Amino acid sequence: MTIHSEDLQMNIYQSGDEAAKLLPVSFDQWENQAKKVLAAAPFGYVHGAAGAGDTKRGNVEAFQKYKIRPRVCCDITERDLSISLFGNKIPFPILLAPIGVNTILHPDGELAPAKASAKLGIPYVLSNVSSVPLEKVAEAMGDSVRWFQLYPPKDHDLTKSFIKRAEASGFTAIVVTVDSTLLGWRETDLRNAYLPFLTGHGMGNYFSDPVFCSSLKEAPDKNIKAAALKALEEGNNTCFTWRKLDFIREQTRLPLLIKGITHPDDAIMALEHGVDGIIVSNHGGRQLDGAVATLDSLPSISESIQGKIPILMDSGIRRGADILKAIALGATAVLIGRPYAYALAVAGETGVQEVIKHLVAETELQLAISGRSSIQEVDQSLVIKVK
């Protein structure tokens, strides 16, 4: 899909009195609308973070340490936001991050963001804890680019089963998340006594997996809570090490990315263990309170990798300026999380499309007004760090 930023912008301006009926424009508006349509517990599950929320706030505030330094008198008539990633040309440097349990936000669950991604031409990273099984998501996306995120189970046979299913369903990369081998201390969810997995949300891939189901005493439809607890036990893989990442590397020829890196030494270790890409992430602040912001981690990781493999980044992306700053500091592309989750809650597939189109339009305008005509021209000279 081609998104013309000026046309999109002008359509909103010309809507006149109808503007109040349009879907939200800013992140804050999407968040506020989601709060109105969702019950307190599901909203809190997305909105909340670990501990006091310092990491979540820090992710957003880190972007204010960098200011864009534009150049003028440049020909910006034609703009190009496209990138190349693992042999695919992607029209915009944006992917949808893996967010699980989407059925707590909208009845369509993961099918809505999957279809929105397919229509926009951007990759969708399906969460391991999706409510909709990966095969159904693949069917909804057709030939569109999709990756599968894996919370590495303790059971190697289950790991192999998930990977084989993903390969058979046309997923073109595996994203191993390594910063969530234990569930963070999330005060909002604890206050609401809310863990959606226990009622079957987010269990689509587990409950449809023959290896997982063979390990149960009772079928999931007979005892949802027991099956969910077994899945959570698999996900609490506290003994996951680099050696076990090697095992996953041996199971697939697909590009393998590691998600949850914030230390340059871990980035180097990941490279040595054969990963094809790194996702700089602190899980949106949902795991470790007081952790370093992802944008603050990005420059040192970029320096350590030296362009050998792609570096992606998530956590804290809210606006087009954020996307440009992340790319300037070493990211190939960014993953969008909470913005599309809120949009999903407000307006389903249409909402997800809308929030991404607005981000794309804003990024393109920011790029042009900064004096660049191509995302490939964005480098560290675009930004300056302020005290």
Characterize the structure shown:
The strands form three sheets. The chain has an eight-stranded parallel sheet. It has a two-stranded antiparallel ribbon with strand order 1-12. It has a two-stranded antiparallel sheet with strand order 2-3. It is an alpha/beta fold and 387 residues long. The relative contact order is 0.19. It contains 16 helices and twelve strands. Helices cover 43% and strands 11% of the residues. The protein is globular.
Short description, anyone?
The protein has 387 residues and is of the alpha/beta class. It is 43% helix and 11% strand.
List the helices and strands and how they pair.
Elements: H1 5-13, H2 27-37, H3 40-47, H4 54-61, E1 66-68, E2 83-85, E3 88-90, E4 94-96, H5 111-120, E5 124-126, H6 134-141, E6 146-150, H7 156-168, E7 174-177, H8 187-191, H9 204-207, H10 210-214, H11 224-235, H12 242-251, E8 256-261, H13 264-272, E9 277-280, H14 294-305, E10 311-313, H15 320-328, E11 333-336, H16 338-369, E12 383-385
